[in-house]
From TrEMBL:
GO MF terms held by the record: oxidoreductase activity
Entry keyword Oxidoreductase: yes
The protein, known as: SDR family oxidoreductase
Gene3D superfamilies cross-referenced by the UniProt entry: NAD(P)-binding Rossmann-like Domain
Assigned keywords, A-Z: Oxidoreductase
PANTHER family: 17-BETA-HYDROXYSTEROID DEHYDROGENASE 14-RELATED, SHORT-CHAIN DEHYDROGENASE/REDUCTASE
One Pfam match: adh_short_C2
Length: 264
């Protein structure tokens, strides 16, 4: 798919981190970008920098997501690129020791359910709404391509650590929907791929650097090469290639410096 000013894109979680880097990369390439996020101030700032539109969207709400797509399409026309980075995660060990009660406790089913809704269900929600809109659009090239959907998974989907049962399961579900969704949409010319980032220098990780520099240094040392956290613009670079390269379809690509974390 040619990346040019005729394309429109939607980036969820576009106000910060990997989503922000993706929105900026697409915008600087000339694409008309709609930034979906709950953070109005940060989202509007990103949209203003690239001449895009901000849509306050809660990915946990079907109505909110539908309204966001409606606003984005009114401003830019049918999106041909969707990059889904937003999520609502859950955490906690399956069973662990509770210092307050002096006994064992389990991570709640309600928390696990919320995380699955915020990762797996939200990914399906955004991707399927986008695909429905793309399905009726004119093909963009001789291959009959109509759009590209890129989901943000995680290396934890294959390499989950202590306390990541919900997160790993949710991201694993994202991986598992990529190939069947790509096959569902093959006759419509819509591609589906996922990026599995390792440890990236996003705001939560930069917070660790400020508060616990020794832990941050340990995270950097855990990456085989390069021995550092990933830069968000490196995620955005792979995202752009997934948009450009029409032969990339149904793929889950790790972007992690070859990290494989032992359980701790």
């Amino acid at each position: 798919m040619d990346i040019n000013s005729s394309l429109a894109a939607v980036v969820t979680g576009g106000a910060s981190g990997l989503g922000r880097a993706s929105a900026l990369a697409l915008g600087h390439a000339g694409v008309k970008v709609a930034v979906f996020d709950l953070n109005v101030e940060a989202g509007e700032a990103v949209a203003a920098e690239i001449g895009g539109v901000f849509c306050q969207v809660d990915i946990m709400s079907e109505e909110s997501v539908l309204a966001g797509f409606e606003k984005a399409r009114a401003a830019h026309g049918q999106e041909r690129v969707v990059v889904h980075c937003a999520m609502v995660a859950g955490g906690g060990k399956t069973v662990g020791w509770d210092k307050e009660t002096g006994g064992f406790k389990r991570a709640s089913t309600a928390g696990f359910e919320k995380g699955m809704l915020g990762i797996a269900v939200a990914s399906y929600r955004v991707a399927s709404i986008a695909a429905l809109g793309m399905a009726g659009a004119e093909p963009l090239n001789e291959d009959g391509e109509r759009g590209s959907i890129i989901l943000c998974s995680s290396a934890a989907s294959q390499d989950g650590q202590v306390g990541q049962v919900c997160y790993g399961a949710g991201k694993g579900a994202v991986n598992s929907m990529v190939l069947p969704m790509a096959r569902d949409l093959m006759d419509l010319g819509i591609r589906v791929n996922a990026i599995l980032p390792g440890i990236f220098a996003t705001p939560p990780m930069l917070g660790v650097k400020d508060k616990a520099p020794a832990i941050y240094a340990g995270l950097e040392a855990s990456v085989p090469f390069p021995r550092r956290l990933g830069h968000p613009d490196e995620f955005a670079s792979l995202m752009l290639e997934l948009v450009r390269n029409t032969y990339l379809n149904g793929q889950c690509l790790r972007l992690d410096g070859a990290i494989r974390m032992p359980p701790k």
